[in-house]
Amino acid sequence: MKIVQNLVVAFVIMTIALIIIPLPPFILDFMFILNISISLIILLTTMYIKGPLDFSIFPSMLLITTLLRLALNISSTRLILSNGGAAGQVIATFGAFVLGGNAIVGFIVFLIIVIVQFIVITKGAERISEVSARFTLDAMPGKQMSIDADLSSGAITDIEAKERRLKIQNEAEFYGSMDGATKLVKGDAIASMIIAVINLVAGTVIGMVQGGMAITEVITVYSIATVGDGLVSQVPALMISVATAMIVTRAASENNLNVDVRNQLLSQPQVLVIAGIVISAMAFIPGAPALQILTLAIMLSGLGLILIRRSQVKVVTDETEQMTQLIQEESSEVDFYRNIDNVYDIIGVEPIEMEFGYSLLPMVDEGSSGNFIDRIVIFRKQFAMDMGVVIPTVRLRDNGLINPNQYIIKIKGEEIAKGEVLVGYYLALDPSNTSEPIDGIETIEPAYGIKGKWITENEKELAEVYGYTVIDALSVIVTHMSEVIKKHMHELLSRQDINTLLENVSKTNPAIVGDVIPNIISIADFQKILVNLLNEGIPIRDLESILETLGDHGANIKDTDMLTEYVRQKLKRTITRKYTDGNSIKVIALDQEIETIILNSAKKNEHGTYLAIDPQVVQTIVEKVTEQIEKLKDIIDHSIILTSPIVRIYFKRLIEQFMADLTVLSFNEIDTNIQIQVIGMIKLEG
């Protein structure tokens, strides 16, 4: 086992030793065959991998195989010059086969092979490696930002983020290594041409001076040895060059190159028919080989017609199966609803429901390798950790009546939001509006209303280099869904959810639950308080603190709104962490005059507290709030209004009719070690 583990080390040391140690022809023949075999294995491997990183050791293999070829070239040159052109059967066989009895023509063919490899394949692979390395390194910041965006939105987990970052790092290192490794292939081609010239010239001189051979015999012997030696090194070098070009041009795919070529080239059978017709027209050119042309044309057209017929048969079969299935479903549906009890099952509404056009179904169907459900599971976990409540099951349905690229989000049976995505495209967002313009289909990101463009996968890396945040279509849907759920979670908190949450608390602290509910506060009022908190985005994860606060104040206060305010003050650390940046918070304060007006307008009845305030005053307050927010929008991204504790609930109820997302906090809801920076003041006058 240890021998296998150190096999590569032993092979490299042996290769270096070949440069110094003379080899007998028998061993040299074996090493030439081994070199060709290794090169063939590498070439075939590059054709069967799904992505470049599946063969990440390729740059190192490139170095090892290049070193082996140079070592064999040196060994063969030693034998050619010291053994009268006899350097083994492999070299003699290759040389005699290519020369074909004509030394000049054979040597020209050999030179053409070397030049084609050097100028076309090796030079092209080198250029592709340079460009790939540069674009991969330039795209790294954009890819990192995309990973951070997915992680913050809950689209991926920490482990997945680490794996994607590692993949980006590996890609950068791979293409960077390939950029340097292709120089080895280029140098190897140059060295092969120089060695061929040395073998021919030096061999001719040695044969005539030391061997006493005639000029024609010298040229014949040493041309065969030179061409044979060149070919046994150039054939594996050519395969390695092709493998190099193959791996740097290979895009990541779910299949290997053979499957991709077959699926993509034969995906449009009408192209084969048209190509066959066009090629058949060449048979009418005077002097053209009609037999060969018509044979190829018939083969192409025939293959195209066979593929077209198969696709039509498949479509007809699919339609027939669908009609049969539809008839069976209609018959079984009538029988099913004959039982009146089954009708009651369809009158309920789902808490959360999403409908998709048919183009989006592969993205959400697990049977089609869609991972939408997995993304929902990850979001449910992250949301539970952040807010302390578990979102209910999301019901997924197809809807043939909507746009194929459209989806609809429903809460309790009613449409709340909808959006449209393009399958196979990426959404490029430029929040700062400072990036270079790119080509794409203009759109509006559905979750946040940011302007963006749908771009193809080919433009993805360029967009990331320009600073755009690039998101795939599935992430757009998941982000939109998550934002809608966050905004409407207070509507989804059911009585059953409350019981489940209380049972969970009872496992660790049964006393607090038994003392407060239902002795001090009822389940219904407790639900109202939690709904109030969720409605303003306050997490309810610390249920023990919430219950303790209700136990302290619930006996004397029955107003759920006021109890909510006491709970908010208890959760000030949570609120502070949610809205502060570091050790400070930037706020807009409410003038004392406005607070006095609001307090004087508060009236109570048997249903709770309401504001009896002049509509003109309300309009003035709203205008002043809007004016301050617009004035300070360049300083703060999210405006926070700070009021006194007794006014907060009334001002929030007043302003949420006009600005539902505006955050209103009281002094008692901010931790004492946080510095409050008042950057604006809302006044009725001035």
Automatic annotation (TrEMBL):
It is found in: Cell membrane. The keyword Cell membrane applies. It comes from the Bacteria. Its main location: membrane. GO terms for cellular component: plasma membrane. The keyword Cell membrane applies. The chain crosses the membrane at residues 6-23, 30-49, 55-72, 104-122, 193-215, 235-253, 265-285. Required for formation of the rod structure of the flagellar apparatus. Together with FliI and FliH, may constitute the export apparatus of flagellin. Belongs to the FHIPEP (flagella/HR/invasion proteins export pore) family. This is Flagellar biosynthesis protein FlhA. The lineage of its organism: Bacteria, Bacillati, Bacillota, Clostridia, Eubacteriales.
